[in-house]
Design a protein that fits this description.
7-stranded antiparallel beta sheet; 6-stranded antiparallel beta sheet; 1 helix; mainly beta; about 375 residues; single chain; elongated
């Protein structure tokens, strides 16, 4: 028999082939041998984990450098250390409060800040009013007070014109109130007004004085001047003699000055004090409107209204002029009127009773603050 062509002889030194393996599973429960490890997939997963660890480390360092403190912008009143809306905080020199208080973190890791909310409130001016009946014969005062954290810039009054009452003093009472003092021969309903500045952190107000002595049947003037860095936002006065003495003109001839012309028709010489209400606040400036008025005939009453403050400014106070002087100014305050285009305008209004036996030229002007 011829040899099988596939039955090749084995070369010396070459081991024979191993026997063929049977198919898996040869025996129940046996498992196939492990495959080759997926090195490419493992390398990708390892690189991703390393990158994630680096990101976490960077975030930890960043948060640690901030100290874990939350800061918020809050409109803080000029003389308060509380944030608007009642959230507690401390005002920095720049006017931005940082949140205080909170709860300790576990492990002594510092303080967890208490969340607060708020908005930066821009400066604005509004009017506070107080009205009171002063009973019987005597003298008394009525005080209008601005809300906590605000500044009273100036003020005004309203009293009955036909009772013989007089206003002998109109001046500030502390930093956030305005007082009106009245001599009244009978019961009188008296109103005091205060022009209140809010949303102006760091603002301060001061009253600068000038005094004169006015002889009987004479007229004299006094000029009170603000210090450097201040602007005048209104005026006040005090008359030592409470009957027969009036202010003929009461206005600001300059951005830092308030002037009063005093007419003494009383029985003796008297001392008079003129006040300049001086505001110190970064970037503050004032502008006076043109005076506007009318002629009031003897024995009659009339009211003068200033022009409106320009857009972007606020009415902080007002002035009047009584020519030739000696008549009774019984109201002086800010008012809201309807403009020609339908919007609201703020003006200064004053009312006069021509009780001196002659016609009176009467005008009113407004002082407009831009902050």
């Amino acid at each position: 028999m011829e040899p099988d062509p596939l039955d090749l002889p084995t070369a010396p030194g070459i081991p024979p082939l191993p026997p063929a393996q049977t198919s898996w599973p040869a025996v129940a429960g046996d498992q196939p041998p492990s495959k080759r490890p997926p090195w490419t997939l493992l390398a990708a997963l390892g690189g991703g984990c390393a990158l994630l660890l680096i990101v976490i480390l960077l975030l930890t360092l960043l948060l640690g450098s901030r100290g874990g403190t939350t800061t918020v912008l809050i409109g803080v009143a000029a003389d308060q250390t509380a944030t608007a809306g009642g959230a507690q905080g401390t005002v920095t020199a720049g006017g931005v409060p940082s949140v205080g208080g909170g709860t300790p973190l576990s492990g002594g890791g510092g303080i967890r800040p208490t969340p607060t909310t708020g908005v930066l409130v821009p400066p604005s001016i509004h009017q506070a009013v107080n009205q009171l009946t002063l009973s019987g014969f005597g003298e008394g005062s009525v005080v209008a007070t601005c809300p906590a954290g605000e500044l009273a810039l100036s003020g005004g009054w309203a009293i009955p014109y036909g009772l013989g009452a007089t206003v002998y003093r109109s001046s500030r009472s502390g930093t956030r109130a305005w007082a009106v003092y009245v001599n009244h021969p009978s019961s009188a309903l008296v109103t005091s007004y205060a022009e209140c500045l809010k949303g102006a952190p760091g603002a301060t107000i001061a009253e600068r004085l000038a005094q004169i002595t006015v002889a009987v049947n004479a007229t004299d003037k006094a000029d009170a001047t603000c210090n450097a860095g201040e602007v005048v936002v209104g005026g006040g006065f005090a008359l030592d003699q409470h009957q027969g003495v009036t202010l003929a003109t009461f206005w600001n001839p300059a951005e830092t000055q308030w002037e009063g012309h005093v007419v003494n028709l009383g029985a003796a010489s008297t001392r008079a004090t003129i006040d300049a209400e001086c505001l110190a606040y970064r970037g503050a400036s004032v502008q006076s409107t043109a005076f506007a008025g009318l002629i009031i005939t003897a024995g009659n009453r009339g009211s003068a209204t200033s022009g409106a403050c320009p857009s972007g400014s606020f009415l902080s106070g007002g002035a009047y002029m009584d020519r030739p002087g000696g008549a009774f100014v019984y109201t002086m305050q800010a008012q809201v009127v309807l403009g020609e285009s339908g919007g609201s305008l703020f003006v200064w209004a004053a009312s006069l009773y021509a009780n001196t036996g002659h016609d009176v030229g009467f005008e009113a002007g407004a002082l407009c603050l831009r902050v």
